[in-house]
User: Fold MFS transporter from Virgibacillus kapii.
Amino acid sequence: MKGKILNKKMIFFFGALGGLLYGYDMGVISGALLFIKNDIPLTSFTEGLVVSSMLFGAIFGSGFSGPLSDKFGRRRLVFMISIIFIIGSLVLAFAPNMEALVVGRLIIGLAVGGSTAIVPVYLSEMAPTESRGSLSSLNQLMITIGILSSYLVNYAFAEIEGWRWMVGLALVPSLILMIGVLFMPESPRWLLEHRSESAARRVMKLTRKSEEIDKEIDEMHEINRISEGTWKVLASSWLRPTLIIGCTFALLQQIIGINAIIYYAPTIFSQAGLGDVTAILGTVGIGSVNVLMTIVAIMIIDKIDRKKLLITGNIGMVASLVIMAVLIWTLGLDSNLGAWIIVACLSLFIIFFAFTWGPVLWVMLPELFPMRARGAATGIAALALSIGSLLVAQFFPMLAEALGVGQVFLIFAVIGVVALIFVIKFLPETRGRSLEEIEADLRKRTAS
Assistant:
């Protein structure tokens, strides 16, 4: 660690800032698409390709970043990710054609995939046990703030159809992240394994009470003593069931319907007759609800079991999707009342997602996996997440065109029911336990 280290609050702020960039680049394309088509002709397929190309990049970014972070450290990789965000933002801002847009989104996707794999791991390893849920939820809060920021930027430049400004302004938080990461400490768990115990203790003093440090250090030494190398852990039979659970959890979060709303809400509202500028304003309302309910999640996530939150969210999301589908069939999408019903139902969906499935996934993924392979395993789960996001981004506009919006959201409702069954039957509870306790229990359960 070189230079002056940030204080506790700033450590977690900059640690989660990659989530803001993920959210911004995920949300900004929804408004930009309305105006890109005026300069660069797009079909329903190429429109989906521009959106989903970021997710192709994310698949590679999440797949490679986990093992790299286990080898070189979380902090160094976040710095590299910030540089990739900068390059991608500049390519998008000056893109002359559809091919350049796809390339820019692919570059951004590499950084997005890296941030989805590394940011949750870093926050989880930096946070003390009793507040790990709320501090790890900062990633999701930053994602929602990034989405809302993109909607506000979209609205600000909608009158002049300034889509290049929309996509290019991601450069600002990218530069802030690049500078901020220079003053961030490395994860204490990574330092203990790759540097020294004294280096780990110095970092832990920034975020923990002194009496907690000895206990956690002893637990980490014990796990290191019995643990194999990263690739051997990943290939082990005892980790395989948990890896499958983590990947399924991440995949379900993306195909449950949230990305159809984030990527295509302005298009849906515009088709419903709200007008382009009003459609973007409608997404600002949805983005605001997303941020507010994520703040609620941060306040309650260390007080309520993770599984109870997920089950509550499932029930609420499925109900809102079914209600919306029925009302669209009854009133039609192109009526003024139908348009505002969609806004209300999508807002209700966001409310339930934002304080349950949104933050809980990012809290639980690093909790599920052992220390020696936490970065790599979380990266694999993030890869599954990116695949799910890619499927929604690429196929939603085509399915909506072929089947209708109401029928597609009914499909999401069915997926929500599947997700509910998965949570009840397969997902373990992790609240109130140290990462080392969770790992010890994982070894015991899978060995028996």
User: Anything to note?
Assistant: Residues 226 and 440 are 10 Å apart (CA to CA).
